[in-house]
Amino acid sequence: MSNLELEIAKRRTFGIISHPDAGKTTLTEKLLLFGGAIQTAGAVKSNKIKKGATSDFMEIERQRGISVATSVMTFEYDGLKINILDTPGHKDFAEDTYRTLTAVDSVILVIDCVKGVEEQTERLMEVCRMRNTPVIIFVNKMDREGQNPFDLLDELEQKLKISVRPLSWPINIGMKFKGVYNLYEGSLNLFSANKTKIEREVVAIEDLASPQLDKQIGERDAAQLREDVELIDGVYGEFDRQAYLEARVAPVFFGSAVNNFGVQELLDAFCRIAPPTGERATDVRVVEPEEKKFSGFIFKIHANLDPKHRDRIAFLRVCSGTFERNKFYHHVRLHKDVRFANPYNFMAQSKDVVEEGFPGDVLGLYDTGHFKIGDTLTEGEDFLFQGIPSFSPELFRELVNLDPMKSKQLEKGIQQLTDEGVAQLFSLQPGNRKIVGTVGELQFEVIQYRLEHEYGAKCRFDTMPIARACWITSDDKTKLAEYIRLKGMQIAYDKDQHPVFLAESDWMLRMNQQNNPDIQFHLTSEFKLAAEV
Ligand code: G4P
Question: Can you tell me the distance from the alpha carbon of 139 to that of 242, in angstroms, rounded to the nearest whole number?
Fold first, then answer.
């Protein structure tokens, strides 16, 4: 194997996702603890915005600081280099999470056993399905009185629309929770509530029929476990790793992150089954990670915390070849060569300048305003990575300038903030009115605050009667032009000058779809790159 191939084989890059409060932060921290990247619990700060803190700007600033630090956490374990990409739990930052999911090779989804599948879980899973991302499910909080595990598995299958296969199995739940049986290895992990230590009591059970099992967990629970395992084998069949890699089956683990329980099983199984980085589609061809020439894309941009310096950190996901410090690379969208003197790598609690990066790695690049989310860097070839979509926003407001003397600052600020992906910007003619679309209320406050503090521009947001924005295309250019002309004020343009239909309601959108069969309405911008080839 070449050095490049060895480096690729070592890397596992994944994201942890959950509905807020299911235990994502706790599990992340415990994985770092078990992985030896941190020594004490509590070292990873919660990046949650506290409930009810939507207008607390200090909280937003604090959040921004923490989320840079925990955006990527890297540690070495079992000969592997593991990169965890953090995703904001707050639903108003959902789009940030969706985009981070474009940079991972697999996902661990955390479920609260009491609450089951929640709204945000379903939406995140939809994005994983769209991208065929392999998913491992961790059912957390088994120390609480949750649902019957079989019912929970049914709920997972139904709501997440994926087949599941338990790889560990709980013995009771809540107050009576005794531990999990590792179906993969045939061993018993006995539970003791322990928030500080990471010791485990594991007993190998060669044969479930053995009386040793009764000794360990009592006759009644042993009988129940035997029955459950028989049922699991009958209903779910053998675990098929290939089906997991193809995102058809999600293996399920049970545990309690806060009690350090079930985390080691999860981490060990993850190392055994999770995929290294694979090929990626571009608008021209498929790129293999083993190709000698470097390529990668920007999936996240973070503004510098110091408002005096407007530089930003662009997160680059390496897709092929070796990225080298100080080497010139081709910025495909700008047709320009750029190089980076201080690319850095994120370790659990620090960041270090690196000389090189390999496929699977995420590097931080200082940017002075050249990058937009989705940008591709190559060693000269012209192609653009696909699958870094924008989603149709859910809230729309008109941006109104409150200080005519500062219109340049406002313009620059809103352009840069929307490049960062904080929100989407649409322009409406005549008058070049600016419509800002977001997925959450909080973004409007963030934009207003940042425009004022970083760009010195004051603005107001006026509500607009818009419920949906759909990108529109048609194979028949004349029909598209005619539709755009007819709809007049209901057509806006995104930053790349693609036409967007603004619908007042879902009903209005459906009517337009029905009455205009030659026009395609898209709720994500995924089509864009394809349309430009
Ligand atoms: P999130 O990132 O998904 O939003 O969740 P987070 O890890 O912050 O966990 C949410 C709450 O659930 C925390 O309690 C955390 O301690 C608790 N928790 C996590 N894992 C378990 C578990 O296995 N069992 C039980 N019973 N609770 C668990 P909190 O009160 O919100 O915060 P804290 O004061 O404990 O930090």
Answer: 22
